[in-house]
Design goal:
The protein contains 9 helices and 11 strands. The longest helix is centred in the first third of the chain and has 14 residues.
């Protein structure tokens, strides 16, 4: 969904993206007045009507709509500093580089990316992970974390407060020179789950030598296979992926939605 506040906030970035698109097609023949610049083209009215709910409540209004060198694609000027590109039927637009269905405000690009990043949760080698169960454990997540990752620490602080959840933690070691030694010592502790929580939440490194066998190499290979290049990355039970940190309110909504049977 696109609300008016977010619309305004990303305006500057959208200008840059759409300006690049304009330059890309700059060499093409310019549209003529017969194509609708004069306002006789009925598509212009459709585009204006489609955008009206989008700009409502923001500082923007649709100042001008004109055809582009691309057949069926129209440029909508909002104020003097923002351009949007909309199809002739007023159904779709490019917003911040993404394809958006205007009426529903569905970000089709984001939905497709999420689909491509979704995995089959059952294929995860959970034996490589640290398992932690709270309550009945019926809600299940798998998370990839580095002990030196600041956002991992914030996510861990939120995760340990959850009820009725099973957390499978795949320890990674790639952010700093001592990430591996910290992870190894947590994995070599008698209580791995407690040691990992203590490491991320309290920066307490276990006092053992860290010389036991660990799955760090296998987890690294798994992360590479899954296209994980940063932490934290979390998978919900339905295979949907969360990259980075989400504040508790948003995360709890996502957990509820993606834990449905």
């Amino acid at each position: 969904m696109i609300d008016s506040k977010r619309f305004t906030r990303v305006a500057a970035f959208a200008v840059a993206v759409l300006a690049a698109a304009t330059l890309w097609f700059a060499a093409a023949p310019a549209p003529t007045r017969a194509q609708g610049v004069s306002g006789s083209d009925p598509a212009i009215a459709r585009v204006k009507a489609a955008l009206a709910p989008i700009v409502k409540g923001s500082r923007y209004q649709v100042e001008e709509v004109r055809p582009t060198p691309i057949p069926g694609m129209y440029e909508a000027r909002l104020g003097n500093d923002m351009l949007l590109y909309v199809d002739a039927q007023g159904r779709y637009m490019f917003f911040q580089g993404d394809l958006v269905e205007i009426k529903s405000q569905r970000n089709l690009t984001q939905e497709r990316v999420e689909e491509l990043l979704t995995i089959d949760f059952k294929t995860l080698p959970l034996d490589l992970a640290i398992k932690q169960v709270s309550g009945n454990g019926k809600r299940v997540v798998a998370v990839f974390e580095d002990p030196n990752c600041g956002y991992c620490k914030r996510l861990r602080a939120d995760l340990v407060k959850l009820d009725d959840v099973t957390i499978y933690t795949f320890p990674m070691a790639f952010l700093a020179a001592d990430s591996e030694s910290k992870a190894r010592k947590a994995l070599c502790a008698a209580d791995k789950a407690r040691a990992w929580n203590d490491l991320l939440l309290n920066n307490h490194v276990p006092g053992n030598a860290g010389t036991c066998d660990t799955p760090l190499a296998q987890v690294r290979d798994l992360a590479h296979k899954l296209g994980i290049t940063g932490t934290p990355v979390l998978f919900f039970a339905n295979g949907k992926r969360l990259q980075g940190y989400a504040p508790p309110e948003r995360f709890n909504r996502m957990l509820a939605e993606n834990s449905k049977g």
